[in-house]
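Researcher: Hi, I'm a grad student and pretty new to this. My advisor asked me to get structures for two proteins we've been looking at. I'm not sure of the right format, so I'll just paste the first sequence and hope you can take it from there.
Model: That works fine. Here's the first sequence with its structure tokens right after it:
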Amino acid sequence: MDHALHWTGFNLFVVLLLGLDFITSRPKDGPLTMREALVRSAFWILVGLGVNVWVYYQMGDALAMDFLSAYLLEKSLSVDNLFVFLIIFRYFKVPQPSQQRVLLLGVLGALLMRGTLIFAGISLVNRYEWILYIFGVILIVSGIKMGMSDDDADVDPEQNWVVRWVRKRFPLHPHYVGRQFLVRLDGRTFITPLFIVLVAVETTDLVFALDSIPAVFAVSQDSFIVYSSNVMAILGLRALYFALAGMMGMFHYLQIGLSVILVFIGAEMLLARWVHISTPIELGVIAGLLCLSVAASIAFPKKEDSDSGETEAPAEE
């Protein structure tokens, strides 16, 4: 019964947070300032840590530690996701006020997709325990691939087969029309470039979810911990994007840190039968690798920063 109350209470809390985010994301005269984005990011992180405290008092210290590890892992992996969003927005030259709407709807879509994938994954793990070894291999391959990738060069929105399919099947309006995804002209309905951007963002997040969700299963197989940590990490993505958009070029070693984290977690899943790594050590490794990659990025800045000023998309609509 208590478990059912936890699910009900948490989901009601999430609906309240989504409503708050929707109300505070109404169209504005200008883009989010760095200060506003940082304040909002801090708010969402505090909310996530507040849920962690709630888990501690309701479920005990072991699950609270699992939640914190899973939350930190998902939050750190979402930063790499934001790098790709930045490339997509820059590629399609999305006006910054419109970026807010795409990210808001992207968060809603991510919650639905990841919720579905999480429960499907839990069902599979409970039925076929050996599938954790497959998840481990996926994470190791993904980590190696991430470490060897070349940032912008590896991301081409036009190669997204869903985007290509949408372009071929629906008439496309040549210009952005405010924040609209569809426009009707001369009795015909056209999709706008903003709709194409939304499709690219959603499908990209699905690809990232296929990496991040198996990773969180290495931390915990408790359905509530996996679900709640993912949800809390996703909710703050919109604010975090605008907080990091102007300084993403600074964290050029973060991708390497994330790739090592994925390989570490994948190896842990493969060796779990013989080697047990406690949650505090796991949390320390994840946090340590993140701090080390950020510190290395600051200590050894990227030399070719001449294009860093292009991170801002035009603000006009």
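Researcher: Oh nice, that was easy. Here's the second one.
Model: And its structure:
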Amino acid sequence: MAGEGGRLVVLGCGFGGFSLLSTLRRSRWDVTLISPRNYFLFTPLLPSAVTGSVEFRSILETPRRRLRDLRVVEGSARSVDWQARTLSCVGAVSGEEFTVPYDFLVIAVGAAVANYGIPGVAEHALKLASIEDARAVRRGILEQFARAEIPGLDGEQIRQRLTFVVCGGGATGVEAAAEIHDLIHEELSESYPELAPFARVVLVEALGRLLTGFDEALADYTLRHLGRGGIEVRTSAKVQAVERERILLADGETIPCGLVLWAGGNAPVPFLQSLGVPLTPRGRLAVDEYLRLPSHRQVYALGDCAAVGEPPVPATAQVAQQQGEYLARALDRGREGKKVEPFRFKSSGMLAYIGGGEALADLPKVKWSGRGAWLFWRSVYLTKLVSPANKVKVLFDWIKARLFGRDLSRF
């Protein structure tokens, strides 16, 4: 992994890119981070930010404050000149085009939200992949309650406006549905006592079960728990189309609704197509056991945009973080001429919030659900937050929401 120069360019500031830069001995490199946003987002708490359990800025960390000895450029890469070793980029704010040379390149651009070609998803559904998305969903929920409050509406119109459909039964979809349900029954029921009985949350999943990455017993428990709480769960229900105020299922059923949240999995970002290198059937960059592109020995990829191993390791924050830490050590050792071992993913388990103060903990040796798992879920995420400032802010957000309720301002 040794090279003639030390110009390292990192594309993306998600879990992969941020953990790489946090672990790297940056003073030994000429490091440039190129990212369209000037912050790292702790995505596991994004569903909580939707409903005000935590506030938006509590789960953001700016690399300029947290990291030193690097250059941060707010922009996006458009293409790579492999011969000249340069990146063609565009500024995120100004839209100006610029070029950046590199000796080593790390591609950690993440993934987009997959819509599987279903009509209407892009036009009529909200997604949950960024802080802007979380703000839009929170505003959308409150807007529907404001719309339902208009005098003269009949019960069917109110029920339609206060039906919130979440499409996707993975961890993001389940957590989002649970958080929205909690918000309605813990907060909005007091502010809108006449409207809250009309509100409902519907969780739609195309496969036969929820949480396919989790232990089946935990997934079955989740299905029962959500049902007891009042969330309507539809498994084996494929969405055929999303329209302005309803979704159409493949079996012919129509669900009138006021808001659709799409949590349907990952799709490749367009930048990967411009690289002219082999992609996997799912559109990810195929890398070797050292996270290198086989055709470009000083170019690496990690996180949701890369596929390593057979079968590939899952596209999760845990994987991206481990890959970033591994690649930082590998790059440092390579420049020193030391031996580099292949990447090996070590699963520490998965967590998910399922509403009503309960969570799942699918650990390598223990499968756990309930109130205790919820306390464990909170403690783990609190320790995983990057900075002491964010740990304190999230802790106080939880305490504040418990004592004084969540902020219901619509902005």
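Researcher: Is there anything I should tell my advisor about the second?
Model: You could mention this: The radius of gyration is 22 Å.
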